Records
---
Amino acid sequence: MDQKEWPLWEVFIRSKQGLDHKHVGSLHAADAAMAIQNARDVYTRRMEGVSIWVVESRHIHASNPDDAAAFFDPANDKVYRHPTFYEVPDSIKHM
Amino acid sequence: METAELTQEELFQQRIDADQRIEPKDWMPEAYRKTLIRQISQHAHSEIVGMLPEGNWITRAPSLKRKSILLAKVQDEAGHGLYLYSAAETLGASRDQMLADLHAGKAKYSSIFNYPTLSWADIGCVGWLVDGAAILNQVPLCRTSYGPYARAMVRVCKEESFHQRQGFEIMQTLCEGAPEQKAMAQEALNRWWWPTLMMFGPKDDESPNTARSMQWRIKRFTNDELRQKFVDMMVPQAEFLGLTVPDAKAKWNETKKGYDFGDVNWEEFWQVVNGNGLCNHDRLQARVDAWEEGAWVREAALAHAKKRAARV
């Protein structure tokens, strides 16, 4: 019995012009052309997309979830990066 | 070491209790991973094997419209199987291994698909009852604790509601037709009713893993709760169609605000689960044949891709 798997691909779909491609899932395919065709059949049977990206899963590099707290910590204490940190006088209407 | 392990497990449970989703690379107890791989792959196998009883009627659908609808539905089931296999793979399961387990008879799939589809009304019942039961199981799973599984279920549920409606429409059309057509609808309901009730699994007191699965939020209602919901939903729908569910004990109970109903034949349930249903052998053989007869295609596609990659 053949146990040789086709490589795994991650699928990203732009649902309409003007929006980002978004990860929707993965699938197996022998090459990129087949991955795009399979992605169309698996993930866009109801007009869910106008554009498809596929990337072989082994090319994705990710941050480590175990380090998430420390890794994202630098942004945690910088409230002054948000506009709500600043008080605008009532008499100033638009800012 | 042991205390550290314990803490991790407690932290994990805390996240679950706070309704946070678990993602593929997050720490998780081995038993959580294993249980999920089993649950998701069984679910995927059910979608794939579930194509067979309906595929049986594609060439014999009574009109071009019905044929187009049935084709689209069967294609959806294939898609659902693929979403779910992908979700299981994020837990470290390999696709080939899952399929090998199915083909070797080691993996389970929903026992409902081991019943034959004998008449066109059966296709109505599969959509109306079987997919109706599946939806009750699946809607709560959209909020299951494992992210990729929950996301796959959101897509599945969106597509599944068309399946149930087309099944109901088939039943309604038959019930509004000639007396012979209505009789065909009733006969199919008689055969599918009890097996559908079995789809929710053994009674709560005989379902040992339920408590832990509920604690992990990979199951959100018990088997008996879902079975009750199903009966409450379906008896009035059968009445609307002018059909009778084949259970003399099915009666509205005003005190519990739900239907009473008779006992499922659990002996039959276990017989089918353990491989002795009417179609177990055929279903598995059809999957094995498809896999073996498709081997040359998989090999050729891979060889072609390698050759092209080498040329660039």
---
Amino acid sequence: MKIFVCIKQVPDTETKVKISADGKSLETQNIKWVMNPYDEYAVEEAIKIRDAQPGSQIFVVSLGPKKRTVESLRTALAMGADEAIAIDSAEFLDPLLSAQALSLVIQMAGGFDIILAGKLSIDTNSSSVPQMLAQYLKIPHVSVVSKIQLQDKKLTAERDVEGGTKEVVEISLPCVISANKGLNTPRYASLPGIMKAKKKTIKEIEWASLDLSPASWNLIKLELPAEKPAGQMLSGSAQEQVSALVQKLRNEAKVLS
Amino acid sequence: MNSFLIFLETHSGQLKKSSLELLSWTQAQEGETNCVIFGSPAVDVSVLSAYGVKKCFQFKNTAFDLYQSELYLESLKGLCAEIKPTTVLASASSLTKDLFPMLAVHQNSSLASDVTQIQLQNGKLEVKKPFLAGKVVATLQMARQPQMALVRPNQITWVTGQKNSSPTVLVEKQKPDVKLLAEVKSVIRSSQSKLDLTEASVVVSGGRGLKDAKNFSLLEPLALVLGATLGASRAVVDAGWVPHNMQVGQTGKTVAPALYIAVGISGAIQHLAGMSGSKYIVAINNDPNAPIFQKASYGIVGDLFEILPLLTQEFKKVLEG
């Protein structure tokens, strides 16, 4: 079985961001970059599938500036992936271009059975690329998956939808699965795994070498969200604070009807 | 000329408020608006007429009762080919976030999901979309047509239909023949009947300040009085007190209700990112230096175990009295 995992490197959730003078990018010097949390579930699931299917191989593919994304690819290799491919690209790509680039690179690698990815990258928040990738590759997909079961050439996946409801989906291979939290518990890279990963060659692909469509969106600007007016701290006894709060919600905020 | 196609969704047979929010926006634009709806709910044409909707296309077959992505995709592809909309809008939901990326590939269009503002500039759709769960707001201009956006619920102000136009024509559409390679076989429904966190207009969230998993239920009476949906911080989800679908934050759900009440949540940056779009934020915490107070519209420093029952009682008095 040939398994691909698409990963992205993103700013750690604790990162405080600053916008660069050009108004279109982030100041990167204080950003701690990590593998997108949802992609960790995808890598872990790929390892579980490979280990249960002798002769399988895992290829990890990433998009983004390669000088940093190679770190996340090494993390995936250290967790247990077999091969890594870095597509060197700009930041904040639109999801259609990302999916198109991934589809071209995956097709170049020749053959695939299962493609895994996180359900969402926590930087651009599009939750679109896995579904788009499946369409470019003309294969089915299930998104936001918290459980899978693989039998022969058929996979059963549970897809999380609103309010804790789950759809049970049967899907034929090859297919794309996007991983939600709950799918598994990602392993930490072992020390021997880290040592081994350091020696592996990461294949690099230049963005310009791919035959891609023009961008589907133009980034006009980035801004910090508008600051809220300073809040009010209530005072007095517990009962006094509670009464004041309810009155304010009703009369000032007008959110109680 | 602008030609809008609005994807309508229903909840218990009623049009979702988030769908009406989209129609509230289109009725103020120049151009023609049509709608599409899947499944068999009875469509109240008078509501749509008031928003100036010209036609409502309904894919009525029972095959649409479950969300079969490939079937929905083929149906929408056919409809887009027929009516050639310039702008397609839907509210961001589990279904649309799965379906529209597929459609965008086939229409060779532009798609921005989870946007908070939309406007047309000389016919081009410009959107505001949170990056990093709202730590940054990006302004994006759609470069291809049809231009498509998935708009978060509770962002566009809902106004009633004010157009005095001819009645909306309901057009029933046939189900296309599609071989399903991915097929929903069954649905495991949760017992939760509340609106999803992403759509709720009031959210009550609990954090580590509740001290123990069993104390999480102390939030329920408050949520009940307010008709709120319950949320949680990552800390208590990771501790296994509540399932992940209740997590609010950068690695959970981004919410923007009219009222967000954070109980015993200190306000880690990743939590703040997921809820700071809320209109009013109430924080209840025993630590006056908790970061959550920097985002709060109203803050109460105190023992939540003392405050919660008093607050529930007070809301009850005001709302039911």
